[in-house]
Amino acid sequence: MAPGLVIRAPAKLNLSLAVLARRPDGFHEIESLMVPVTLHDTLRVRRRDDGAITLAVRYAGRLASADGRGLARDVPVDDSNLVVRAARALRDRAGMAAGLDIELVKEIPSGAGLGGGSSDAAAVLLAAARAWGLDWSRDDLAALGAGIGSDVPWFFTAAAAVVRGRGECVTPVAGVPPLAAVIACPATGLSTAAVYAACTPDATRRGDAERLAATLAAGDLPAAMPLMHNALETPARRLCGDVDRLLTALARAGAVAPRLTGSGSACFAVCRTAAEARGIAARLAAERSAGRAAWPGVFAVRLALPGAAACRDALPAEDWSLESRAVVG
């Protein structure tokens, strides 16, 4: 039996997200400071010789707990899943006759703006290239990934980066520290297309992502807070009452300048310490247990950790089921 590969695919946060204009191709021109976080999915990939590509999905972590099942939204296993589409695209482009068995262990909530689908697609591109013995560079894989999803190229950077265009133009930035953060996710998801359609572009935000990165690198978190904005937050709050209530709950729990990530519905707050993030998460959980709100997904994480990004490590696995082989970085 062919050896397998195990790879970690992280969630992301948009510390800033400006929507600058609507493009002639129908997409929006964005500028965003994106960072990986320690919340992640895990993919196990093994080559098969009959050309078939199979996907099995199971849930772990918060998504597998009794009160987190509302976040375990249906994840398709056919060609509508970005993982399958990515593997097929690479196989077809490379002219491969081989196939893949893929197991996806989901811990990142879907439909939350955390980039789980794009991260999984990027991870499977790297793992498939290795499983099939393809001599493709990360740049080659990222270029292929751009046709699969706008966020996919960023997941090959392994670091914080300013993302422009519709997401395909990625410029890594140095010095963003491994700050703590709390992420909270309501049971209600949001349509990315609907949120963007309700957004008003604002070109005056151009350059904010670079200014935010430089301010964080200088260690001035209070000055960085006003630069953490998301142009999609206002339409998301209008479209989903849970987003409005969650941002209010985060502030009530002690979060400073909580924000939406991506097109939602997950929200986050950057914290000064891991203890502060855990405290905010605990207070949100206490609200849930007291019946005041329903936030099935609350995660205390770190951001911009070396080795946290998808596609940094793919590990040979002698045993497909060895969970310990998924621990990298």
Topology:
Layout: E1 4-22, E2 28-48, E3 53-59, H1 82-94, E4 99-106, H2 116-131, H3 138-146, E5 161-165, E6 169-172, E7 180-185, H4 192-197, H5 208-217, H6 221-224, H7 233-239, H8 241-252, E8 259-260, E9 267-271, H9 274-289, E10 297-302, E11 314-317
Parallel strand pairs: 3-4
Antiparallel strand pairs: 1-2, 1-11, 2-4, 2-5, 5-6, 7-9, 7-10, 8-9
Helix pairs in contact: 1-2, 2-3, 7-8
Short description:
The chain is α+β, with helices and mostly antiparallel strands. It has nine helices and eleven strands. Helix 1 (82-94) runs parallel beside helix 2 (116-131).
Into which percent range does the helicity of residues fall?
A: 25-40%
Annotation field: number of helices:
9
Contiguous uncertain segments of 5+ residues: 307-329
How many strands, what sense, and barrel or not for the largest sheet? 7 strands, mixed
Question: Given the C-alpha coordinates, what overall shape results?
Answer: globular
* Proportion of strand residues: 25-35%
What class do helices, strands and sheet pairing give?
alpha+beta
Give the averaged pLDDT, no decimals.
Answer: 88
Distance between the termini: 27 Å
How many DSSP-defined strands? 11
Radius of gyration: 19 Å
What is the chain-wise order of helices and strands? EEEHEHHEEEHHHHHEEHEE
Task: Give a description of the structure.
- This protein has 329 residues and is α+β, with helices and mostly antiparallel strands.
- It has nine helices and eleven strands.
- A hairpin with a 6-residue loop joins β8 (259-260) and β9.
- α1 packs parallel to α2 and α2 (116-131) crosses α3 (138-146).
